[in-house]
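worker-3 :: picked Tat pathway signal sequence domain protein
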Amino acid sequence: MCNMQQVIEFESSAKQQQPIDVRATIQQKIKSINHWLDAKSEFYSRICEFSVTRRLVIRVNLVSLCVIVAAVAIEQQPITSVVSTLCAGYLVYRINKSEKKGGCA
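worker-3 :: C-alpha cells ->
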C-alpha cells in the first residue's frame, strides 16, 4: 500500500501579486465613463443636424421620462408627481448650465 501526500503552497502565489490601488482604479473608470459621455452621439447628431453629446441625449431623455411620470401620477400619486417635476426641472437646469459653459461636442 502506497501512501502519497500532496502539498499545496498558497503563500508563493500570494507573494507575487501586486497590490491593487482601488482609488486609482475607480478614478480611471470614472474618467473613462465621463470621456464616453462627453463623446459625440453620431445618431442624434444626424437627427438634430448639430453636434450632440451622449450626456445631453441622456439628460433630454430623462427630462421626457420625468415629465411623463409626472403627468401619469398627478391624480393618484401627487407626491410622486411633484418629485418627478422637480427632477425634470433640475435636469433642465443642468442642461442649460452645460450649454452656457460650452458643453456640446
